[in-house]
Amino acid sequence: QVQLVESGGGSVQAGGSLRLACAASGRTFSTYAMGWFRLAPGKEREFVAAISSSGGTTYQADSVKGRFTISRDNAKNTVYLQMNSLKPEDTAVYYCAARAFIAAQDRNVYPYWGQGTRVTVSS
After folding, report:
1. Gap between the Cα atoms of 34 and 102, Å rounded
2. pLDDT tens, 37-82?
3. Do 53 and 98 touch, CB atoms closer than 8 A?
4. Full 3-state SS string of 63-119
5. Quick check: 90 and 60 in contact, CB under 8 A?
6. Is the dihedral of CA 76, 71, 59, 92 positive or negative?
C-alpha cells in the first residue's frame, strides 16, 4: 500500500511553466511505477505521463510530448512532472497514481491515487 500527495499546482500564463511533485509514503517507493493523469471539466480522466519503477522507461501522451517531462527521485520518494510551454487546454486537476513495477497508460490499472493538484493556464 502507498499513499500519495501531489503539490506544485497553481495558476500561470500561457507559455509558462510549473513543476508538480508527488510524494509517496512507505519504504518501497522504488518498486512502484508512477503515472500522472489529469481531469478537466466535461472531459474524461486522461493519461499524461508515466515512469517505470527503475526510471528507465517513460511515456508521455502525444498532447504533452516535448513539453512535459516525468522524472523520479527514489531517495526522496517523489515523482515530478515538469510542465513547460503550458497551454490553456492543459488546465485540469492533475493526479498522481502508482502501480507495481511496470509503467502503463491505462488509468484502470493504477490502484493508488493522490488527491490531485489544480493547474490553471490563462491566455
Report:
1. 9
2. 999 999 999 999 999 999 999 999 999 999 999 999 999 999 999 9
3. no
4. CCCCCEEEEEEHHHCEEEEEECCCCHHHCEEEEEEEEECCCCCCHHHCCEECCCEEE
5. no
6. positive
CA distance linking residue 8 with residue 83, whole number of Å: 11
* CA contacts within 13 A on the Cβ side of 76: 10
Contact criterion met (CB below 8 Å) for 103 and 50: yes
Q: State the CB neighbour count (10 A cutoff) for residue 71.
A: 15
Measured CA to CA, the distance from residue 29 to residue 63 in angstroms comes to 28
Task: Tell me the three cell numbers of residue 45.
Answer: 480522466
AA letter at 73: D
Lookup result for grid cell 490553456: 88
